[in-house]
Amino acid sequence: xxxxxxxxxxxxxxxxxxxxxxxxxxxxxxxxxxxxxxxxxxxxxxxxxxxxxxxxxxxxxxxxxxxxxxxxxxxxxxxxxxxxxxxxxxxxxxxxxxxxxxxxxxxxxxxxxxxxxxxxxxxx
Length: 124
Description:
Elements: E1 10-14, E2 17-23, E3 32-39, E4 48-50, E5 54-60, E6 62-67, E7 70-75, E8 79-82, E9 87-91, E10 98-105, E11 110-112, E12 117-118
Antiparallel strand pairs: 1-2, 2-3, 3-10, 4-9, 4-11, 5-8, 5-10, 6-7, 6-9, 11-12
C-alpha cells in the first residue's frame, strides 16, 4: 500500500517557495501529483503558464493570486482552479507564511514570461 510518511517527503525550493512533494511516480502515484507549497511572507512568485490543470487549496494564510490577468485575494479554505494554458501568479503580501495543497496530473510543465520552461520534479 503506497503510504507517504512525512519523513519521506522531498522538499524543493524555487522562486522563494518551498514545494514539499508527496504524490509522484517515485512514491507510487500513476496519474496525479500532490504537494504542499510553503510561501513565506513577502514572496512574489513569477507568472507562469501551465500545461496541466492544477487545483490549489489554501490551508493557512492569505494570498493574492492572478489568473489570466485577473487578481483576487484568497484566504484559508479557498480553492483556485487553474486550467491548462492559464497564466498564473501568486503573491503573499501578508506578514505571515501561507501554506497551500496543490494537485495536478503527471507531466505538468510551466513556462515563464521569458520562455523558460520548467518541469518541476514535484509534478513529474
